[in-house]
Each structure stands twice: as C-alpha cells, then as structure tokens.
C-alpha cells in the first residue's frame, strides 16, 4: 500500500543582524518601554494590538493576519546564557548548538544526515543565497546552494565560473578563520559533486511552476518564491534555509526596521498564500530567529546589541499564540542592560526537530532543554 502522508518540510528564515525584540513584539502597556525608547519607541496609535499587553510593529500587518488565523507562534525570551553580543560568534552558536566551544557541524546538517543517511536525495537540503549557511554544513552531507533559481547561481557546475568562484570564495572566507582551511576544503571536496547533481535536479523547478501570487521585487520575496517553486516541484527537499537583513539597527532604526519588517511580512504572506493556492501548505513549517535582540534603552538613533530575542514559528501545523514569558524590563532584572534570556534556543530547536521533523533532538542540540509546545 502506498501512503499519501506528506513528509514534514522545514523552512528557516534567519533575521540576520540582531532584530529588535522590543520593537517587534511590543509590551505597550509597560511604562518602562516608553521610558527606555525616547527615540525609537513606537507610538501607541501605530502599534498593532494583539492582546491587552502586547502588540506587533506597525509593519507587521500580514503577520498579525497569520497570527489571527492561529498559524503563528511567538516564542518569548529566546537566547542562551552569557551572550557574547558578537554577530559572528552568536550566529555560530545558533548554527552549531555549541555555546562553549567552536562547533564544526551545523544542526540542520546533522538533521539532514538523520533524514537521509544514505544520501539518496542530494536536494534534501537547499540553502538559498550567495553563501552556504553553517547551520546546514556537515562534511559528507549534500547541500544544494542556490543563489537564485533563474540564474542558477549554484555551488558548482551550472552557473558561470566567475559566479561559482565567488560563492566558493565567500564560503571559504567565512569559515576558514574559525575551523581552518583544511576542514573547509574537505567539506567542499566531499559535497561538490552532490551539489552539482542537485543543480541538475533543481533546474526543473521553474518550468513546473505557475501561480496567481505576485511576489514583491525584494531579495527576501525572491528567495521565498524560489523556496515555493522547489517545494511545489515535489523534489523531496525537506530543509530550506535563507536569511534577510541586516537588522543591525545601531542608527536610523525607525525607518530601517519598518522597511525590513514590511519586506519580511509581505514575502512570508505571499509565500504561504502561494502554498495554500497549490494545496501544499499543510506539511510546511517556517521558523524565524535572530542571533540576539537589542538593548532595552535606545542610543538616540537606534539600539545596540542585546541578548534575549523572540523566535517565531508559522504554518498550518503550528499552534498559534504566545509561548514563554516576556523577560522583565526592570533594571534589576536586566543582563548588562539587556533583556535576559529565559528559554534556551536549543529548546526551541528541540520542538522543531522532535515534534515536527520526527528526529531525536538530543545528539543534534547537545542535550535536553525545555521545549515550548507550539507544534
């Protein structure tokens, strides 16, 4: 007998640069919010009120609609102890689940190895963008790195030699200082052939795609449209990874943050509308996170690097709502002036791995952590 059950698919949207938690999920009834945000605080009348205490940034109208459908979970206070407040190191920790040492294996690379241990499908994982994300990188695990489906900016073979070399060079520059050139070149050598095979497979996706949804002409919309095209081509891809940003709002935050969330919200809304139109949304969960939040008090133009942030899970299988406690804004409860994390990000991952992907999370996240029940 054949089964009609669809395999679970995970889409990761990384909000690179440190998204401002306090201006994304706004505790608008707390006077400390206004006191600490004289420059970047959102005016009461602009906040999209979700309940009697919390509201979304005014650029998140589409996110509010998804929330109202019960398909958006907001997970409060996500982070890890002793945040280094460094973009590279913090993202490295999120990618490898190794806060105490430099990790060499990406959490989703390990997940992909569990999903497809014999490498029967070289497009089990697709990384969207000009460089491959460390989260999906494990030696011997194939990853198709796609810098735009239409231009075939892939890690090997399909694109122009110049574009291929640019991608390889960027990957090498990103990771050689941390894990050494030997490990980087070993990874590229082991995965190069599979990536080229993946490129050949992914070539079919654009020609199979037809939709009434018109995505915006923004980088994140183009990436999510490519994710939709690959997913709808039914090539067996289980993990997609992409990012958007930078959310590094040290200066001129008000307009910058509004523009970023406008882009993300519109793209996410169109992506799920596209999947629903094709009856292909019921087995897709998207998660969004940032490497850290930002400081409670603004700096007169923006906000500096912080600690705790919010994570999000979206999709039809998600149990929408708020999870965990919003960290205290009181001065005595802050961590060096920042919101203190109260949920380890590896617990957030554990929910995704165990309750969605059906995997054993413990060896992937390196331990057992409290997991919110949003799936």
What is the number of helical segments per DSSP (H or I, 4+ residues)? Answer: 12
CATH architecture: 3-Layer(aba) Sandwich
Average residue pLDDT: 89
How would a crystallographer describe the biggest sheet?
9 strands, mixed
Residue runs with pLDDT of under 50 for 5 or more positions: 153-160
Number of strands: 12
The CATH topology turns out to be Alkaline Phosphatase, subunit A
Backbone shape: globular
**Terminal Cα span:** 28 Å
Using the CA coordinates, give the radius of gyration.
Answer: 20 Å
Number of domains: 1
Strand content: 5-15%
CATH class: Alpha Beta
Level of helix content?
25-40%
Give the helices and strands as they follow along the chain.
Answer: EHEHEEHEHHEEHHHHEHEEEEHH
By secondary-structure content and strand pairing, the structural class works out as: alpha/beta
What does this structure look like?
This protein has 375 residues and is α/β, with parallel strands linked by helices. 36% of the residues lie in helices and 14% in strands. It has a single domain (14-365), classed as Alkaline Phosphatase, subunit A, CATH 3.40.720. It contains 12 helices and 12 strands. Strands 1, 5, 6, 7, 8, 9, 10, 11 and 12 form a 9-stranded mixed β-sheet that branches. A 3-stranded antiparallel β-sheet has the order 2-4-3. The protein is globular, with a radius of gyration of 20 Å.
Search tags:
Alkaline Phosphatase, subunit A, alpha/beta, 12 strands, globular, three-stranded antiparallel β-sheet, nine-stranded mixed β-sheet, 375 residues
Indicate the topology:
Blueprint: E1 9-15, H1 21-24, E2 25-26, H2 31-36, E3 48-49, E4 55-56, H3 61-68, E5 72-79, H4 87-96, H5 107-115, E6 125-128, E7 144-146, H6 161-179, H7 181-202, H8 205-208, H9 219-232, E8 239-244, H10 253-277, E9 284-289, E10 309-314, E11 321-323, E12 343-344, H11 345-355, H12 362-365
Parallel strand pairs: 1-8, 1-9, 5-11, 5-12, 6-7, 6-8
Antiparallel strand pairs: 2-4, 3-4, 5-10, 9-10
């Amino acid at each position: 007998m054949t089964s009609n059950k669809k395999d679970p698919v995970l889409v990761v949207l990384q909000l690179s640069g440190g998204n401002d938690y306090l201006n994304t999920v706004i505790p608008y009834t707390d006077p400390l919010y206004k006191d600490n945000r004289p420059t970047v605080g959102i005016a009461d009348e602009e906040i999209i009120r979700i309940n009697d205490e919390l509201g979304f940034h005014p650029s998140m109208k589409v996110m509010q609609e998804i929330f109202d459908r019960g398909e958006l979970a907001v997970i409060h206070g996500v982070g890890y102890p002793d945040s280094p407040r460094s973009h590279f190191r913090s993202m490295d920790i999120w990618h490898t689940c190794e806060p105490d040492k430099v990790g060499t294996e990406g959490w989703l690379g390990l997940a992909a190895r569990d999903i497809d241990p014999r490498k029967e499908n070289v497009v089990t994982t697709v990384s969207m963008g000009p460089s491959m994300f460390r989260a999906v990188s494990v030696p011997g695990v194939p990853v198709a790195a796609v810098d735009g489906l239409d231009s075939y900016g892939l890690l090997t073979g399909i694109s122009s030699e110049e574009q291929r070399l640019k991608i390889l060079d960027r990957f090498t520059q990103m990771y050689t200082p941390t894990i050494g050139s030997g490990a980087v070149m070993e990874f590229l050598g082991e995965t190069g052939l599979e990536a080229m095979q993946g490129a050949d497979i992914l070539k079919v996706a654009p020609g199979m795609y037809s939709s009434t949804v018109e995505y915006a002409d923004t980088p994140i919309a183009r990436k999510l449209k490519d994710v939709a095209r690959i997913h709808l081509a039914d090539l067996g891809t289980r993990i997609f990874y992409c990012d958007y940003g930078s959310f590094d709002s040290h200066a001129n935050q008000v307009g910058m943050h509004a523009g970023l969330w406008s882009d993300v919200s519109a793209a996410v809304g169109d992506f799920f509308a596209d999947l629903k139109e094709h009856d292909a949304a019921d087995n897709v969960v998207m998660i969004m996170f940032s490497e850290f939040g930002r400081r409670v008090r603004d700096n007169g133009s923006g906000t500096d690097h912080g600690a705790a942030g919010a994570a999000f899970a979206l999709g039809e299988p998600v149990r929408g709502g708020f999870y965990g406690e919003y960290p205290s804004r009181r001065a005595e409860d802050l961590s060096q002036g920042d919101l203190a994390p109260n949920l380890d990000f590896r617990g957030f991952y554990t929910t995704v791995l165990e309750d969605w992907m059906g995997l054993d999370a413990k060896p992937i996240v390196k331990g057992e952590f409290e997991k919110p029940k949003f799936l």
